Each structure stands twice: as C-alpha cells, then as structure tokens.
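Reading group handout, session on sequence-to-structure problems. Before we discuss, look at one worked example. The prompt was deliberately terse, the way you'd type it at a terminal:

> structure Type II secretion system protein GspF domain-containing protein

The input record follows.
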Amino acid sequence: MALYRFTAKDQNARKFSGEVEVFDEKTLVESLRKEGLIPIEIKKREKIGLPLINALPKIGGVTVNEIVNFTRELSTMISAGLPLTDALVILEKQAKNQKFANILAEVVADVEGGMALSQALHKHPRAFDIIYIKLIEAGETGGVLDKVLIKLADTLEKEKEFKSKTKGAFIYPIIVVVVMIIVITVMMIFVIPKLTSLYTEIGANLPLPTKILIFLSNFMRNFWWLLILLGFGASYALRVFSKTEKGAEIISRLVLILPIWGKIRKTLILAQFTRTLGLLIATGIPIISALKVVADLLATPTYREGILFAIGRVERGTPLYQPLAANPDFPPIVAQMIRVGEETGKMDEVLQRLSIYFEGESETAIRNLTTALEPLILVFLGLGVGILVLSIILPIYNLTSSF
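And the output record:
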C-alpha cells in the first residue's frame, strides 16, 4: 500500500483534504466517489527516513485508546440527551493529547457550521478510519447515532483487547531471543578476542570450530558497520517493495502459505472480515456497500480479490454464500453460516458469532505456537551455547592432551 494526499470537494463545493494509505490512485478515486466527493488533486507521498524510525509510534499521534474512550463517552452523552455540539466541546476540553484536541476543535467548528459529523470526521483519516466514518454516517442517516456509537465502542474495545492478547503472547519469546542475541554479540565482540590472543600466546593448535568462531568474531568487530548497513538496507528494500501493488501481493501470498503462521494469518483476516461486515450490516448499510468497504479495508490482496469477485456476483443477484463457497481461501464454515444468515435474515448476528469463533481460533493457535516456541528457543539456545563452549574448550583440551 502507498500513502496518498488528496484534495476533493463535495456537491456544495466544500473542500476536504487528508492523507490515506491505499493500494493505488484508482482505489482512492473510487473511495472518494463513494463518499460523494469529487477528487481535485491526488499526490503520492513517499515515506522518507530509516525503516526503524518509520516503524516507531508517531509522537503526538492519536492512539486507539483515545478513539475508544472518545466513542464511548460520546455515545453516553448523546444517549443522555446532550446535543452533539455540546458533547463534542466537552470531549475537546477533556482531551489530554493536544493533537487529538486540535482535531476535535476542527470537528466542532465544522459541525457548528452545519456539516454532518461523518463529513467532519472524514477530514481526519489518520484518526478516524473509513469503517468508523461509514458507521457514523449510517447512524446519522437512520437517526440512531447513539446506538451506532455504542456498538462501535463495544467493537473497538473487543478489537483492542484481542490485539493486546495477540501481542502479549509473543512478549516472552521475543524477550528470550533479544537477550540471546545480546549475549552472543557480547561474547563475539569482547570475550572471543581475548581468548584468541591467549591461544596465540600459548601456540595452541586450533580446531575448525574455533577457527570459524574466531573468523566470525573478527568479522563482527571489524565490519559491524557493514552488518548494520545490510540490516537497514534489507529492511528498507523490503518496506519499499511491500508498498508496491505487486510487492504487497507477493508478500501476502508468501505469508499465507507459511506452515504455521500462514494459518494464523488467515484466521486473523477472517475474524476481521466477519467482525467488520457484521458491524456494517447491523447498522443498516446495504450488503454490497458493506462488502466494498471491507474490501478496501483488507490489506491482503488474496482476500481482497475474493471479496471483489463476490461483490460482482452479488450485484447480479447471486447469494453471497455461493462465491465464498467456491473460493478455497474461505473455509466451508463461512459460506455455511452466511447461508444461514441470508435465509433467516440474521446476517449480522451470524457474522458476529463467526468473528468470535475465528478470534477464539486465532487465540488458541497463537497460544499453541508460543507454547511450542518456548522449548524450541531453549533448545536452540542450548545448542548455541554448547557450540560456543565447545569451540572455546577444544584448543585447551588439545593442548593438555599433548602433554
């Protein structure tokens, strides 16, 4: 995906601008037109800087917690009968993050100027994504903004909790690996050179493992800068390649065919697909419009293409479950449950149950993976330490055995 900056206007000649990540310019144009906006100017922006710096959280940005709290508090205030503008003003004053407070100040000014809340939020795509805006728009159209905000807050909280569990499962393996890398680096740079000088002084006959260890140590000491450059260069090249349409497609397909992580990735995508589609349908958004929004949301080209194909079939009158049943990327349970939802008229409920099922499957798979990783990491750590110790002791053993 690439970053684009756009300027557009609506039917009343009001201008909107912002930045958004999409696959290509065509996708952005289609998305703007769906929102009733006419593109005036679109510019592709390159992300400049080192990959590690770009990967860090933006200082002063709007966090997920802030959006969740804002949505929950706004829903409570509107349900209590407080006017929208008054509620927004209160939330603006309560905001501790100055960047978020500035965004809310602009939203307040736009709403007071007669703009719909969804249109005001649309001007800030980095804080409020397309799903959020679509749901707010549906709530305004149906006169049920308070109910939509409650559903949206609940969904955001569940999604945040699910992501926290997913990330938390990998904390221990990551810490172990990082510590292992640090220990090996310290050994190679500081300990091995001292042993090398000792072996040279005593004239020890060095076996092959020790020679390899000394070579690696010398390489790391003398060409550490090259290793850092190669690491950053490879990271930057991969990042740039993944931002291209072809690169994103290749990488996503490679990830999906990985033995263990591929299955977890598929389950995570299906959980996102069913949860988002169910939420959109529950707020009264037509199935085709909801599918188009979900297709724009998914960053995996494989599933995005499958949903776009399903949209074409649904537009011609085919039930949604049929193209999904014919697509091997969607497990049979998805088509079967959607068929039940279409026949009973409870599509939103069925999709929410499916999302809970896939989230549970994801949590179980990730937990099993991390449980299996722990002993594997310890085994590799033991082998590494064993090889290191053996390479250090062998010259001393050869020397003592010669007497």
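Points for discussion. First: Residues 46-60 have pLDDT under 50 and may be disordered. Second: The first strand starts at residue 2 and ends at 9.
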